[in-house]
């Protein structure tokens, strides 16, 4: 994720430094970033001239790489302590920089306090693969300065992304929607014997295609609010309410 996020920024013009734990992992990250860029060129999504001008380098020193930077994006392991350590070091090296975390689950407010920079920190949650998926969730913490949010929204738009500002709640927005669907899908497989391949096919050929053009509330507007309310009266009590995540482990993946 970090390599592809860096590649997306580099394609937009900024000089990007990928910070890794070792020279070997740095070389791997650089190779992944350039591979992602080449894939975009091969599919006609990015011009060769633009790709060749992307400026990417690596470092193993968070402090040195952060010094003088305007924006720092953290994408390390999904662990509060690990993320806070990196962000704290970066914050001290770049006292004016806006700090972004690619966390998918950790509270931004809590992370900001742990990194000792709550006013400067916000979440930028990318969908995987980050080089291709346009949506980025922008999550302010309770103490994040408004100007930081506006700055990152504008920056992401300049990179070609579609930023949406969402609340600092568990799962943010699209993961909450994704896991609500996964929970119901798992129940259909585990309790009702629906093959996983059938569920995947149904999503690809109905909801996936439809929702790429109109969202769920637009769909409800097209179908009529009263119709959806009547269906909800029949279904809401039947939909899965499981709280045991091991339900997903019981699905034989295709």
In short:
This protein is of the alpha/beta class and 254 residues long. Helices cover 52% and strands 13% of the residues.
Describe, in plain words, how this protein is organized in 3D.
The structure is a single chain. With 254 residues, this protein is α/β, with parallel strands linked by helices. Helix content is 52%, strand content 13%. Strands 3-4-5-6-7 form a 5-stranded mixed sheet, sandwiched between helices. A two-stranded parallel ribbon has the order 1-2. α5 (80-93) links the parallel β3 and β4.
**Total helix count?**
12
Amino-to-carboxy terminus distance? 24 Å
Q: Name the strands of the widest sheet in spatial order.
A: 3-4-5-6-7
Residues in helices, as a percent range: 40-55%
| Secondary structure: number of strands | 7
Low-confidence stretches: none
Protein topology:
Elements: H1 2-11, E1 15-19, H2 23-42, H3 48-52, E2 55-59, H4 62-66, E3 71-74, H5 80-93, E4 98-101, H6 108-114, E5 121-126, E6 135-140, H7 146-159, E7 162-165, H8 174-192, H9 196-211, H10 216-223, H11 225-235, H12 246-249
Keywords, separated by commas or semicolons:
single chain, 254 residues, 5-stranded mixed β-sheet, two-stranded parallel ribbon, alpha/beta
């Amino acid at each position: 994720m970090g390599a592809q996020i860096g590649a997306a920024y580099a394609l937009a013009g900024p000089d990007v430094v990928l910070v890794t734990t070792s020279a070997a992992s740095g070389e791997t990250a650089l190779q992944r970033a350039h591979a992602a860029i080449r894939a975009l060129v091969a599919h006609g999504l990015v011009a060769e001239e633009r790709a060749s001008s992307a400026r990417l380098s690596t470092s193993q020193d968070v402090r040195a790489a952060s010094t003088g930077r305007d924006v720092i994006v953290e994408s390390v392991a999904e662990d509060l302590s690990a993320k806070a350590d990196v962000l704290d070091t970066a914050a001290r090296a770049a006292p004016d920089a806006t700090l972004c975390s690619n966390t998918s689950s950790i509270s931004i407010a809590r992370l900001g306090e742990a990194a000792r920079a709550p006013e400067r920190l916000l979440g930028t949650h990318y969908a995987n693969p980050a080089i291709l998926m346009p949506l980025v969730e922008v999550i302010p913490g309770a103490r994040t300065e408004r100007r930081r949010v506006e700055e990152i929204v504008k920056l992401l738009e300049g990179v070609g992304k579609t930023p949406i500002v969402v609340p600092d709640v568990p799962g943010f927005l699209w993961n909450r929607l994704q896991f609500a669907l996964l929970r119901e899908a798992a129940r259909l497989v585990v309790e009702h014997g629906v093959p996983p391949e059938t569920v995947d096919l149904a999503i690809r050929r109905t909801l996936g295609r439809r929702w790429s053009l109109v969202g769920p509330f637009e769909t409800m507007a097209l179908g009529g609010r009263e119709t959806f309310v009547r269906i909800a009266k029949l279904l809401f009590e039947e939909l899965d309410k499981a709280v045991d995540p091991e339900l997903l482990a019981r699905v034989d993946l295709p």
